Amino acid sequence: MAKLPASITPPDFYGIVEKGIYRSNILHPTNFSFLKTLSLKTVIVLSPEPPTRALSTLFDEAGIKVIHLGVQAWKPTLGWRPVSEELIKEGLEIILDVSYHPALIMCTSGLHETGILVGCLRKLQGWNFNSIVTEYRSFAGTKSRYVNEQFIELFDLDLVTLPMSLPQWFIRQQQLLREEEEELQNSLPQPDSHDSPRLLYLGGVPSRAASGPTTPRLFVKNAAGRKADKPKKSKTVEDSD
Question: Is 107 considered catalytic here?
Fold first, then answer.
């Protein structure tokens, strides 16, 4: 792999999330030359702190739109949550809109707010939670926080309204997930029409993660769809005595 010239230095926690989406910590003057190579259209700042004057000037000169969600969605009382749900909801709706691409997700450390937003994107993509945590910790390392992982796990994806102009990679992933679900449903045994008890699959919704489908739960039902009753013990003369 060819080395970059000494004058072009990526940020410490720079990474490619998906085509047209990048992530990093706050940029320093040594990173400015590298930033220009990305031909960014949008920068999403997740930290409450505004970009430095030098960085703001660079964005203005390059014609890069800055969306400072860290201020817009910040709340003084978040309880146990490390960030607000509004911040993550709005961030996801922006980065999934191709009209903002190429886009850079940025926070002060490049680990916490950014890591949560990327983790929730992975959850929306159907990643296995273990894979999400692995990616988060690969950036955060010893600075990883359990509360961030907990937020990702509990984040309600129904809050997110998908934009009309979705990126092709996201559309393809959703198609693959639907095909996977259809294949699993078609592989399930069809119920017979006999009155004898039969096995009914419940909860066999395929996992949207890379690890495969969840294990179906089984219980016995009769052909009429009612749960089969346990045989009652017949009452004898001895029992009545």
Answer: yes
Question: What residues make up the domain containing 188?
Answer: 184-229
Catalytic option among 17, 64, 73, 107: 107
What are the tens digits of pLDDT across the range 159-173? 999 999 999 999 999
| pTM across the whole model | 0.73
Mark whether 202 and 158 lie in a shared domain.
Answer: no
Same domain, 131 and 219: no
pLDDT per residue as tens digits for the range 17-73: 999 999 999 999 999 999 999 999 999 999 988 888 999 999 999 999 999 998 765
Q: DSSP string covering 11-79, please?
A: -TT-EEEETTEEEEE---GGGHHHHHHT--SEEEE-SSSPPPHHHHHHHHHHT-EEEEHHHHT--S--T
